[in-house]
Predict the 3D structure of the following.
Amino acid sequence: MKHGFIRVAAATPDIRVADVEFNTEKICEAIGKACEMKAKIIVFPELCMTGYTCGDLFTQDVLLKASQEALIRIAEYSADKDILAFVGAPLTVRGKLYNVAAALNRGKIIGFTTKTFLPNYAEFYEMRQFVPGPEKAGYILFQGEQVPFGPQILFEAVGMEELVVSAEICEDVWSPVPPSIQAAVEGATVIVNCSASDETVGKDAYRRSLIAGQSARLIAGYVYANAGEGESTTDVVFGGHNIIAENGAVLKESARYSNEIICSELDLHRIAGERRKNTTFQAAANGSLMRVPFTVSKEDVQLTRTFPKMPFVPSDESVRAGRCEEILTIQAVGLKKRLAHTGAKTAIVGISGGLDSTLALLVTVRAFDMLGRDKKDIIAVTMPCFGTTNRTYQNACEMAKKTGASLKEVPIADAVSVHFRDIGQDPDNHDVTYENAQARERTQVLMDIANQTGGMVIGTGDMSELALGWATYNGDHMSMYGVNASVPKTLVRYLVKYAADAEKDKELKRVLYDVLDTPVSPELLPPKDGDIAQKTEDLVGPYELHDFYLYYMLRFGYEPGKIFRLAESTFAGDYDRETILRWLKTFCRRFFSQQFKRSCLPDGPKVGTVALSPRGDWRMPSDACAAVWMKELEEI
């Protein structure tokens, strides 16, 4: 279970209604295949020992006895198998018939989870044959042994405290208060469901959202195995719709009407980390549920689940468009409120022809439109200096004019040269002082123009730069309201592209597209042959890697070794192992050493699940040590 990953499976075997021998053979085959696939948990459909659609045959002793004997054989088959299996079966206890999920491990039946809610409406009539399970779990005598029996039993993996499994059965999860809620509150990290949910038009979409939603609500993994072909089609059809979900995301889903086994890896460390962070997830200190141990070996698995290269950016184009619109609106609404509250007469935006300042200008334009104010009160300031290229200068000027802002040009080369003279800086020494003096001069110009016009300086820096500390302290690091403060660099690009795609003015559209094609650069070093000489990603590393690191470190609290593993898998073919490791070390080192810049950030709107505001999402001492994180990377 390296890095918390455990492989699970949901299986829909071929069955024959009431043919227990045939069904037993197919269930054992599926367990064997799941073991070959390195799964540690496998879940089968509801009543798959006999078939869910047996109807009044469930009153026949011969069927019930055959099912009971078959369960014992399947348990014996599992004796040398490294797996926990849940098999749906009918079970008679003290003259009553129950719908149960039998838990099998290392040759034994270690528990019977009972179905709590029996549907008795529309096409369902389970209360004709079955009774609901007891309120609390106890023990029954089964084949001469005391076996746990009842709802919400917690199956705990020996030596793996984060692997706690609990079962529910079909209708349980469709009820207003599913049993899995209490199980999760008392520690279950994985919920399994033995189900027989028939197909009707549109039901698959609801089922998918239900399982994903329950996994999100419980902050858990959810493994759902559904009845499929082989069940009776007298009145209904079953599609074998299997789903594996985690924290609201569907990791794997079977094709309907095709009996199959699906596998994926649940991330138990992520689940545990999310629960620790979520103070509304109230875990029971002294739970009342029965706990049953089971054993599976700790074994590393090759990941089959994938991770997006740009976790901040939706891969689906239509979803991405909606997300971009929402983010731009959040940014603009935040700025609108701040402008109205302060009574600012103008908004001052330093524009460079780069991505960040372009986004800040577009957001400011939106805010002015919301306020119904004249966009001439947006003062777009271009401040050419030693590293400014004609391309970025022209784009900045054209953009300001086309958005309706007032363009103001303030060349700063002379002022910076005087400053160099005053502090004794050799202008031919292109060191950090040479670069930062320009950034601080630009901020001074913006602040003073804001004072002159009764305005507010709008910050342009993005979250990726803040994470890395790639900002000049009290230079571009400072503003009066930072609209991009929680927008990562990879997302900035898509927001600008979204705006460019929607732009009706052909010339402004052209400029925005050219900004997208311009290399990311602070332009603080003199150009080479008229082109940008200083490319940020050559110096600090690719932003797609840094945003990937940032997301998994802050969103889920992953350790560096795990982040490296995910990055190596995700970016295979794009970056080699050494490159990924080098930039991850850079990220960790800079993230810790540059916290002092984040500790005094201006206000700015949060737009996503990850943010670095020292007043909100990320409160970290500026002198926290990175030694533990760096040590793990050195050992890779």
Summary: The chain has two domains: 2-280, 317-634. Residues 16 and 230 are 5 Å apart (CA to CA).
